[in-house]
Every structure is written in structure tokens, then in C-alpha cells.
Amino acid sequence: MADLLGIATSGLGAIQQALSTAGHNIANVNTEGYSRQVADFSTLPAQRIGNSFLGSGVEVGAVRRAYDSFVVDELRTRSSKLGQATSFESLSSSLDSLVGDSDNGLSTTLEGFFNAIQGVASDPSSLSARQILLSDAEILTDRFTQLNNNLLSFERDTNNRITSAVGEINGLADNLAELNADIVLALGGGAVPNDLLDQRDALLMQLSEKVGIISLEQTDGAVNVFVGKGQPLVVGGTSQNLVVVDSPVYPGRLEVGVAQPGGATQIITNQISGGELQGVLDFRTRVLDPAMSKLGRLAVGMTELVNAQHQLGIDLNGQLGGDFFSPISSPVISAATNTGAATVSFTIDNVSDLEASDYLLVFDGAQWGLTRTADGAFSGGAGPFALDGITVNIAGGAPVAGDTYLIRPVHGAAGSFGLELASPEQFAAAAPVVSSLSLGNSGSAEISDVQVSSTTGLPLAGDITLTYNAAIPGYDVVGGPGGTIAFNPTTESGGKTFTFAGSGGLSFTLSGIPSNGDVITLSANTGAPGDNRNALFLGAMQSQALLDGSSATFGESYSGMVGGVGVATRQGKANLQAEDSLMDSAVAARERVSGVNLEQEAAELVRLQQAYQAAAQLVAITDTLFQTLLNATAR
């Protein structure tokens, strides 16, 4: 009877534990990260009686989690990818809305500026037309400044997001380390802390949303967590916090690092992979930096090209034109860690060849290396380095291995774009050289396309006269370079172009059939308010391919910037949609393995209830048998 009672009571106890486990599952059906628990029954050791073994009952050998490590690892991976895609898409969409908005963009103001130049060209002596030009130029410079400030606000936002993400990562790492210690302690006592394991998995899931991680379970039950290229974040019960530091190379930029012994910091920004943190870093590298550089390249291009053409004109006061826009100068930034004495500078040689990129100049102890950050193109040597329309010069004292210099010909230049012209009269609408035909000419000689290409030798020191000499045949030149120029009206009456190198690069086209002794005079323009030739040249720049390797107009260059942001945004949206779908699949896979199904649990309750009732009935039967035995032996 005692053995039968033991079997019955063991069944009651085991089934009661199973009922409690099912109830625990039902109670946590809405608990995030909870894994369904299963009570595993096992028989108690049998007793040998004669030649047979008789069972002695049942016990709950373990209460385990319904868990698949492969499924959980895949879920963390998808969570990391989704966090990265979400933050990237959010930031790029916001920037796309900004630069693509016609009210905030440059397209309308660029068109207004060049329309105002055409207005002056139509009436070069009109002060009101010139004042409209200055007003539209101010609107243009204000729009450049506004756009640059907006991009800077995105840069500040990325810094704030990096700081916030690192703070959350550190908090999660600290909590993981504490849970590791509790789990190791519990396992050391022989118990399996399922709920603590679920809490740790939930923390690992939250951490993977912030940054890509690698987790390795140890023999004592602790989980070590690594980020980047094996940088430890959690080791057992100890956490290694990340830090946010100012970039030693890029001003105003925050980097992610880890503290090293002795107070040094190892920067691991480029090693971060996955999670919200990488999404922010990708946005900064792939979208924000190129946008700022392309906008800056447009500002530098307009400044250099418009100024160069404006300087070749004459204003209403008869003076050579000055700078229309304020000159932009971009410094070379020396890294805070530099200890050498080298001096680095750069010059812009050809605006049309400028790339929307920064350049890193690093001394490796033996030679200098210049890297274009946009695509990683590398040049090595002693310098100077000439590429992409710039020349990088190295002078001064000796460098030290590791010395780094950041060269930013265009990045952020839009913030320095400003108007230099102070009054309407200073707009140089006229050309500096005028031509005239002598009244005594008897032939049909003509001169056209009179223009200059530099300010060297301007204004002309005196008149340059061209007298036709049929004996050459050609013109005798008096003044300027002097000498003679060949012109045969028999074969060249349709036009022949000449250039005088020493007089502002003066060029002109001669045509017609001159008579011997016909005279053409080239003179300095000192008072021609109706002359609009330089204004026409300036206005024509709107439709000329002057930027991006002479392949894009000013408007097309800006459209390229907007298009680049738009393409990145569309790619971000497509990637987010794909990752969202993959995440749903991963969640569903985990739910199939670890999720609580109320219908399944309800069926389990019914089954256990019936088993419990049967075990209780066995107790009752045992009691009856025992009472019968007592009654039979009573005295």
C-alpha cells in the first residue's frame, strides 16, 4: 500500500508542477520575449522485487524553455538589420524632403538670378535692372546659406543620435552583465533560471536593434557579447562601455570608441556593423557628406566662374569688374594628434574638375599618401599631388609617422557663399575692349566676337590699330603686340579668329573683303553704358556645362545633388520594406518554436486536469485498500 500511495502522490506532485507551468505560460502570453516552458516528466527509479522491477512513480525532471538557438540568432540578425534600415530611411527621407522641396531648394533662385542678369543685358544702363540683379543675388546667397545650415542641423542630429544610441548600448550592456552574474549563480546551484534566460534574450534583442552584436555562450552559462571586429562589450559579469569622442580629424563630428588603458581611446566607428548606430553612420557617410560636398562644389564653382567672367567686364564707372561673389577659402585641417612640423596647403586649378569629396593626407613614416574619401582612390609619394582640379602642396618641417591632414576643397563651402558686389553701378555688364571701323574705309572689312580671357594687360594702355596691307596680305598691327597678322580675303573672307596673348588674351574675328589701307581700331572701353557683352557672357553661363568635369550646368549640378539624396532614399525605403518582411518571418519562426498558443495550453490544461483526477482517484483507491486491510486485521 505504501508503494502504491507513493506512486499516486508522486503523480499528483508532478502533474501539479506541470499545471503550474501551463498556468505560467498562460499568464505570460503577452510578455515580450517570453519563451513557452515545458515540464518534462521522468520515471522514478524502479524497485526490484524478486525477478521483476516495479515502478515507483514519476517526477518532473526539468522545466525547460521551448528554445531554438538558431532561430533566436536569426531573429537578432534581422532585428539588427531592421534597426539599421529604419534609422537610415528615416534620416534620408527627411533630407530628401528638405532638398527636394521647391520652396527650400536652389532651382528657382538659380533661375531667378540668371533671369536678372538677362534683364541687365537687355537694358545695361538701367539702375533698376541692376538693383533687381543685386536683390536676386542676395536671395541666392541666402538660399545657399539656409541650405548649408539645414545640412549642418542634420549633422548635429546625427551626433545626437550617436550619443543617444551609445548611451542606450552602455545601459543594456550593464544590465546584461548583471544578468550574467545572476544566471551563473543560479546554474551553479543546479537550477535552470528560465525567466532570467528570457530576460537576457530580451536584452540581447534590444541591444541588437542598436548595434550589430556577436554573442557567445560560455560553459558557465554566461554570454559574452562583442561588437565591431571583436571588440568586447560584455564579458561574463563585466561590461566594457563605449564612449563618444570628438573626431581628431573631422571638426564637429563625433566618433564611437572604447577607452584603453592609460586614458587613450580607440576609435571603432568604421568597425560598427548593424543596428540603429550603423544606420546613422551610413546616412552620414553615404548621404549627408556627399550632399554637403556637392552643394559646396556648386558654391565654389559659381563663385570662381562668375567672378572670373565678371572681372573681364567694365562697370558703369568705367572700372574693371571686381569679385561678384565673396571669394571662398577652405583651410587644410591638421589632426589633433599630429606632432610633426609639416605645412600642407592646396590650390584650386580647375573648378570644372572638382570632385565632391574630401581628401586625407597621411604620412606613413616613409612617404605621403593622399586618399580621396569618396571612393578610396590613393596616390602616394613625396608630393605635391595634382588631381581633381586641385594641387596639394607640402612644405615646412619634417613630418612624423601618422600625421594626418584633412583637405576639404568643397565640403561646407556653401556656408561661405556671399555677395561681394556693393552697388548696382559696380556690375560689369560691358566688355573692356571696343572696336571701330575707320570712316574712310572703302572695303567691307568687319570685326566681331571681340572678347578677352584674362585681366592681364587690361585696361589697354593705348589703341591697337589694324591697317590692311594688300601686299602681305594681312594687317599691320600698331600697339599691343605689334607686327603683322595674315589675312587673305580671297580665302578667309568668311572669318578668321586671332588672339593677342599680351593684351588680356584679346581675341576677335576678322571677316569681309578689306581695301588696302582700311583701318580697324581696338580701344579700351571707358564709357559705354549701353554695352551688354559681358552681361551676355555671364547670362550664357546658365546653360553651359561648367561643372562635374564639364558635364553639368549649375542647375544640373544641383539636380545631381537632389537626385543623389533621392536615390539613396528610394534604396533605403526598398531595403526597409525588405528587412521588415524578413523580420516578420523571423518573428513568426520564433513564435512557432517558443510562442505561447492559448488553444494549445488550454488543451494541455484539460489533459493535465484529467491526469490529476486519475492520480487523485488512485490515492482514494489506495486509502480504501488500506482501510480494508486495517479492518480485516482489526482485533
Features:
10 helices, alpha+beta
Structure notes:
By secondary structure, the protein is of the alpha+beta class. The chain has ten helices and 27 strands. Strand 10 (254-259) and strand 11 (265-267) form a beta hairpin. The protein starts with a helix and ends with a helix.
What does this entry show, briefly?
The chain contains ten helices and 27 strands. With about 625 residues, the protein is an alpha+beta fold. It has a five-stranded antiparallel β-sheet with strand order 12-19-14-15-16, with no helix packed on it. It has a five-stranded antiparallel β-sheet with strand order 20-27-22-23-24, with no helix packed on it.
- Mind telling me the C-alpha Rg? 41 Å
Main beta sheet = 5 strands, antiparallel
* Helical residues, percent: 40-55%
How many β-strands, per DSSP? 27
Contiguous runs where pLDDT drops below 50 for at least 5 residues: none
Strand order, largest beta sheet: 12-19-14-15-16
Outline, from the CA principal axes? elongated
Separation of the first and last Cα atoms = 20 Å
Strand content: 15-25%
Average per-residue pLDDT, rounded, comes to 91
Total of DSSP H or I helical runs spanning 4+ residues: 10
What structural category arises from helix and sheet content? alpha+beta
Question: Which secondary structure elements does this structure contain, and how are they paired or packed?
Answer:
Blueprint: H1 2-27, E1 37-43, E2 47-49, E3 52-54, E4 58-65, H2 69-100, H3 107-122, H4 127-188, H5 194-210, E5 213-217, E6 223-227, E7 231-235, E8 238-239, E9 242-246, E10 254-259, E11 265-267, H6 275-310, E12 332-334, E13 342-348, E14 359-363, E15 368-372, E16 377-381, E17 385-387, E18 390-396, E19 404-407, E20 433-437, E21 446-451, E22 464-469, E23 474-478, E24 483-486, H7 489-492, E25 496-500, E26 506-511, E27 519-524, H8 533-540, H9 554-594, H10 598-632
Antiparallel strand pairs: 1-4, 2-3, 5-6, 6-7, 7-8, 9-10, 10-11, 12-19, 13-18, 14-15, 14-19, 15-16, 17-18, 20-27, 21-26, 22-23, 22-27, 23-24, 25-26
Helix pairs in contact: 1-10, 2-4, 2-5, 2-6, 2-9, 3-4, 3-8, 4-5, 4-6, 5-6, 6-9
